């Protein structure tokens, strides 16, 4: 870096400053977080190498304090050892912000999100059915579609209730899976959740406690489900809801189903919660409600599928090892057991409990449509992941053009015998599916979605993904589209006119690093567009923002 900007140095110096600023901004993202003596400690230091013969500056020379982090590790970390993986996908289950408890915020293994808010148990959400999209924002909101907890029923079964506050703690973790134990306030009231990224089923393991499922939404129907069913027994589009066989919806104009929820008794509860009171033909989340099905549909299953036996509202259903649960929102879930059980259920408040202690797995899965339900049901007794790893390999030679990523899972379950690993189904993100070279795509598999795009079912406990390697540099690999250059420039000027953009003010390294790296990118964009004035503005603002973080105070001159 040189402060001289004569004609022969200006271009080189400017590019050097931009690269230096961008590199520093990226480095600023990295915060120092470590665990010492059981307390989570975060500290910020600025440093530079000491010149030969020069002593390093004392800690008092730096303009930052060393402080203890206000949030100490909670008991939810369980058996997770040091160093704690503070950036893991499941960290929300074990940290809090002082105003909340560990687990109040969801962890997102995809396609589901899970949490344990207020000690209710493991809340499971399939967020895409609550997706909210604006021109600048997209989110899948959390809803407690199903809540899994150990049950403690009254002797007369006036309704099963939870086992008091349900605590959770980590038992094991790796790059792709998490084992977390949930326990009630009495001995034996516990189960272990086997969460795996991309798993179509949420799997829990039980050893003698009584499973209880509840929901923030009323249950409209609970019935036995046949893996061969593909009609009303298989998904959200079939049946007339509640078992009134053959009774179609009330007709609206020109004989079409009336779109108002209030016109259909089975959907009356939704009139206030669905936009404009309309539930036909599709809700905002794209799921057809059963009360709005065409009059030709009945409560019967498809040809070849077993007629599901429907219980009245709030009764006993079973014994069976596979059930279908329908919610007032239009969602349909499958609940699978290792062995037949009898369930007691109520519509509102929603509850669904086994009739006694149970040992084995309980799996739950969202069924997007009848075909998805049939595919899920067919694989309900298949293996599930209990451990996983990701290995990255690339040739050491100069000019290597490809990297290989290997995803590997260890499986368990009733089907975990010889060859079971080939039956594992895991959902691939769009960028995984596009680069998959080992792992068989299941074309007729269940349908799932997430904010990153549609998920692709892949069969096998081992994937190989090949990614091309490209040369990375500060400069863009190609020129901007000339027809869009002016629009980009105007947007750039608008960003640089925003005070917060020009003056990063976050006090933590994470927030500051994001703000500073944004400013560095704007400087590089300006340079690429040939906007010299904007490039200087961004680079100068970035240098000013980084100044307190990088250099130590000038030490007293010493002979060298």
List keywords for this structure.
single chain, 560 residues, alpha+beta, 14-stranded antiparallel beta sheet, six-stranded antiparallel beta sheet, 7 helices, 25 strands, globular, disordered N terminus
% residues in beta strands: 25-35%
Q: Count of DSSP helices? A: 7
Mean pLDDT: 75
Computed structural class: alpha+beta
Gyration radius, in Å: 29 Å
Please estimate the helix content.
10-25%
Major β-sheet, in short?
14 strands, antiparallel
Distance between the termini: 22 Å
The 3D shape can be described as globular
Query: Unreliable stretches, pLDDT < 50, 5 or more residues?
Result: 1-57, 153-161, 230-257, 271-276, 281-312, 555-560
**What is the tally of beta strands?**
25
Report what the structure shows.
The strands form four sheets. Strands 4, 5, 8, 9, 10, 11, 12, 13, 14, 15, 16, 17, 18 and 19 form a 14-stranded antiparallel β-sheet that branches. Strands 20, 21, 22, 23, 24 and 25 form a six-stranded antiparallel β-sheet that branches. The protein has a three-stranded antiparallel β-sheet with strand order 1-2-3, with no helix packed on it. With 560 residues, it is an alpha+beta fold. It has seven helices and 25 strands. The two termini are 22 Å apart. A hairpin with a 4-residue loop joins strand 17 (332-346) and strand 18 (351-354). 39% of the residues are buried.
């Amino acid at each position: 870096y040189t402060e001289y900007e004569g004609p022969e140095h200006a271009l080189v110096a400017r590019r050097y400053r931009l690269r230096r600023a961008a590199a520093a901004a990226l480095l600023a993202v990295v915060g120092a977080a470590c665990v010492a003596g059981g307390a989570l400690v975060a500290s910020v230091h600025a440093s530079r190498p000491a010149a030969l013969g020069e002593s390093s500056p004392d800690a008092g020379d730096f303009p930052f304090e060393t402080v203890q982090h206000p949030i100490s590790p909670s008991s939810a970390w369980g058996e997770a050892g040091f160093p704690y993986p503070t950036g893991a996908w499941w960290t929300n289950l074990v940290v809090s912000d002082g105003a909340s408890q560990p687990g109040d915020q969801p962890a997102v293994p995809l396609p589901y999100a899970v949490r344990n808010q207020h000690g209710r148990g493991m809340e499971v959400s399939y967020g895409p059915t609550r997706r909210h999209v604006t021109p600048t924002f997209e989110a899948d909101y959390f809803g407690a579609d199903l809540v899994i907890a150990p049950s403690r029923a009254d002797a007369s079964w006036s309704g099963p209730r939870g086992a008091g506050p349900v605590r959770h703690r980590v038992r094991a973790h790796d790059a792709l899976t998490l084992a977390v134990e949930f326990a009630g306030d009495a001995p034996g009231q516990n189960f272990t959740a086997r969460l795996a990224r991309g798993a179509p089923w949420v799997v829990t393991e039980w050893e003698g406690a009584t499973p209880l499922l509840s929901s923030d939404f009323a249950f409209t129907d609970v019935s036995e489900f046949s893996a061969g069913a593909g009609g009303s027994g298989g998904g959200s589009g079939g049946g007339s809801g509640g078992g009134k066989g053959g009774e179609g919806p009330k007709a609206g104009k020109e004989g079409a189903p009336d779109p108002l929820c209030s016109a259909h008794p089975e959907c009356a509860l939704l009139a206030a919660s669905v936009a404009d009171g309309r539930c036909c033909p599709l809700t905002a989340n794209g799921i057809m409600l059963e009360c709005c099905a065409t009059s030709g549909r009945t409560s019967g299953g498809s040809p070849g599928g077993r007629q599901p036996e429907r219980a009245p509202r709030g009764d006993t259903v079973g014994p069976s090892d596979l059930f279908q649960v329908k919610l007032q929102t239009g969602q349909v879930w499958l609940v699978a057991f290792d062995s037949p059980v009898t369930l007691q259920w109520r519509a509102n408040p929603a509850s669904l409990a086994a009739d006694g202690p149970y040992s084995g797995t309980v799996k739950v899965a969202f069924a997007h449509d009848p075909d998805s339900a049939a595919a899920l049901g067919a694989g309900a007794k298949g293996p599930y992941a209990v451990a996983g790893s990701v290995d990255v390999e690339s040739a050491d030679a100069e000019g290597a053009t490809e990297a290989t990523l290997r995803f590997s899972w260890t499986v368990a379950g009733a089907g975990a015998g010889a060859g079971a690993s080939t039956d594992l189904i895991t959902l691939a993100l769009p960028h995984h599916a596009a680069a998959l070279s080992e792992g068989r795509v299941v074309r007729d598999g269940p349908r799932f979605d997430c904010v990153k795009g549609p998920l692709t079912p892949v069969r096998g406990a081992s994937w190989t993904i090949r990614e091309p390697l490209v040369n990375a540099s500060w400069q863009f690999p190609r020129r901007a589209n000339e027809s869009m250059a002016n629009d980009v420039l105007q947007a750039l000027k608008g960003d640089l006119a925003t005070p917060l953009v020009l003056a990063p003010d976050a006090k933590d390294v994470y927030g500051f690093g994001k703000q500073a790296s944004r400013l560095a990118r704007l400087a590089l964009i300006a340079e690429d567009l040939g906007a010299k004035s904007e490039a200087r503005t961004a680079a100068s603002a970035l240098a000013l923002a980084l100044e307190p973080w990088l250099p130590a105070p000038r030490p007293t001159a010493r002979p060298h």
